Amino acid sequence: MLQIIRDNAQGVIIWIIVGFVILGLSSFILSSYLGSGVKRYAAKVNDVEITNRQYSIAYNNRQAQLQQQLGENFARFFDEKLLRTSVINGLVESELVTQLAHEAGIRNSAAQAQRSLEQIPAFLDDDGKFSNKKFANLVAQYGYSAEGYAMEQAVSLSNQQFITGISDSAFELKSSVEEFQRLTRQQRDMGVLTISLAEVSKTINVSDEEVKAWFDQHASEFMTQEQVKLDYLELSFKALADSQVIDEDEANKYYDDNKASFVKDDFTAAEQKIKDIIKRLKKGESFDTLAKEYSQDISTAANGGDLGYFGKGLMEKPFEDAVYSLKKGQLSQPIKTSFGYHVIKLVDIDGEQRQASHILIKKQSVTKPYAEAKNAIMNTLKTAKAERIFYEGQTELENLTYQYQDSLEPAAEALGISIKTSPFITRAGAGQIFRNSELLKEAFSEDVLVDSLNSNVIKLSEDHLVVLRVKEHVPAKQKTFEEVKAQAESRLKQERALQQVTILAEQQLQQLNEGKEPSAIANANNAVSWNAPGFVGREARFDEKTATLSPEVRKALFRMQKPESGKVSFHNMTTTNGDGVVIVFRAVRDNPVQEQPAVLDSMQSQLTQTAGRTDTDAVLEYMRSKSDIDLNDQQTDEGDL
Fold first, then answer.
1. Helices 146-167 and 110-117, packing angle to 10 deg
2. For residues 408 and 420, is the Cβ–Cβ distance under 8 A?
3. Is the full-model pTM beyond 0.70?
4. In this structure, what DSSP letter does residue 634 have?
5. 79: DSSP letter
6. Distance between CA 328 and CA 346 in Å, rounded?
7. Partner of 240 for a Cys bridge, out of 123, 143, 386, 602, CB 3.0 to 4.6 A?
8. Computed from CA positions of residues 383, 389, 395, 397, in that sequence, does the dihedral angle turn out positive or negative?
9. Tens-digit pLDDT profile for residues 266-310
10. CA angle 87-89-90, nearest 5°?
């Protein structure tokens, strides 16, 4: 057939054959694309798509936040699956709120979004005014355009108004608060019989034959842990940056070329100028005149520095503290803020409001000397070199460890990094990077453990990669009876002691129901103690007197039904430490509400906020249950969101 095609390559027949091939391939590709089930979105909420780009931006930004918060501990605690789940769920919830807000008719204009952006300190210039350039540059670092971010801000404001509308509509009646307070402060008259597991254990004896028989039944519980020792290559941006050597001439040249970047705030001249102005004010010169002549606050200088009336929380703290410490007509000392130095005159007091005037002399920006900028320059140059090496090395690491799957040496030689060896680690992990769940998953995978291949490239973080292969494998094995005899004996005694504690608790419960006194029951057995603290509260701070009850006993007591008048209720349980407990519950005492009105008002506010959050969660959960939500399992990488 192939020979026929070659022989007729210049004829009509070849083009007929090629045409059929192309048609077949086209149909196959098209059907594969349309019918493969590949989703072109991260999630879909009621036919509204959350794009892969939205997901990617949100994921990267959240990961960056975690890296900043956790620092060097990031690799230890980072869980990619958990982060992906959290990010996609957050985006879905946000879209649900957006749809609900839209249905409710809540809209925010571009002007409202702009005013909101102008309140964000990161977008303001040194004069405290909104900077379009600073705004655009900053949001671009997080993957947004200025228009896109502003649009999201408008949507965010609408969502916030919707959520606030739900939460602020919640309320708690004063009577509910009083009832809550009454139940919170309720006390219960009780006593407790405790059967000590430790004391019962002392009475348990087992023979060697019994221990051996028990071990034979539980042998699978006494295995050594499977362990691996790993060879690995580690490509770390931080380690690369730290290892770079920068020539002094190179650093000097960078300083000369970028002097505008090495500036610092200098308050010296501003402080001296303000001190000179204060001297002139104290000699009687007009504050209004000096403000018009010298103040560098262009928004108030023409008005003699008048700031009008304002309350707390609007000015920088040093400025605010100075204003609220002055008497009417009094001048301040030089006050330093992020803008420079001020002298303040308190003009008027109206309740909590203050009217003040000020004269501002701004700080100056001066170029740092080379010696002062040197460390920053070295770090910048090291980072630049490390970036190039890291991102080139990332591709090379992946290619070479895949191409030569039976060795790490080609990649190590090409990248100029050494092969490291781990200590023995188990499936539970070990210290440092060997706590990472993805690394452990790879280390004990079939490809690595059984087939002795290199692992996939493991991303501990965006700038920290690892590839590993097994150097030594120690399978789990059965421990001998002689090795674990003492442990097996202890386990068997523990089991029998727990059984005995349960039997004793049931016996004591029966004796109490027959009318026997708890103290008499305790006196008859050295392993049993009786404690009668009397009235106790839901929390130790509400006890009539300090009662040494474990939280689980206290919790069980307040779950018991109130006994009928003149009768006693009993409840037996086993605590987490294995002790047996029989609670003797006699009576309830509801403390009257004696709190001050201000305390009740505060509690009412707290309960109302809690109710608001609960209402909001309920609305979102209901909306989620009634919505058509389609998650892209391939995008979110695990498929169990």
1. 90
2. no
3. no
4. H
5. -
6. 5
7. 386
8. negative
9. 999 999 999 999 999 999 999 999 999 999 998 899 999 999 998
10. 65
